Amino acid sequence: MVILPILLFGGTHLYRAFRLRQNDPDDIQTVRTASDGLVEFTGTAAELNGTVTGKYSEQECLAYAWEHHDRDAGSTGDNRESNYHMEDRGTEGEPFHVRDETGTVGVDPTGANIYATEDEDEWKNRERIHKERRIEADDRLHIYGHKQTLVERQEGLETESTYVGSNTHGMGKLGKIRTRPHITVGHLLGISSDLHITVGGESDAIKRFGVIGGFFTALGLIQFVAAGLVIFASL
């Protein structure tokens, strides 16, 4: 039954939006001294270990997310996004610093969900759509991810002994499902990272989680009602 996984995924995002709304982000000094685990904080991005070049924009940045959409087979409509489907997506980047008035912490963007709706670049024609969301130096960021203490030096993080990143990057879909079964739909769609980086403030992150959660919850409820009507009609 696909309805329950959809509702769980939507509900998880709505709960996350609620939690973020209830709790203020920590300052970076608190993040650095906290026990390893989930943290939320804001700060300004700064270069740590060089930059990368955007896949489509060819602009230098600290990290970026990209999407490739192909036109649906047989579609003869206009260039509305509903006539396209996502073919591939990914995230590229180098570890970077995030700073506030209390300190600095490293962030490894590998495998992150990067949100930057207002700064998203798009290239579209009748056959395909390319999208790119970049993190650049001096961007204001909201980070929601796992604080981790390094036992030994890690490539790209220079002398950092603490950083924030993903706990599940590198796992296959089956491994992610076993680790976090309540968001199976996200694992299958490739949008289930446990590291969320939003270009903007906490309100932007809350809005993003709320929109995603609302969409999937509504979708699940619609399917639930439709399934109920089918069962009722068959009686």
TrEMBL record:
Protein name: RING-type E3 ubiquitin transferase
Record region (Disordered): 70-112
Keywords: Membrane, Transmembrane, Transmembrane helix
Source superkingdom: Archaea
Transmembrane segments: 209-233
Basic and acidic residues biased stretches: 70-102
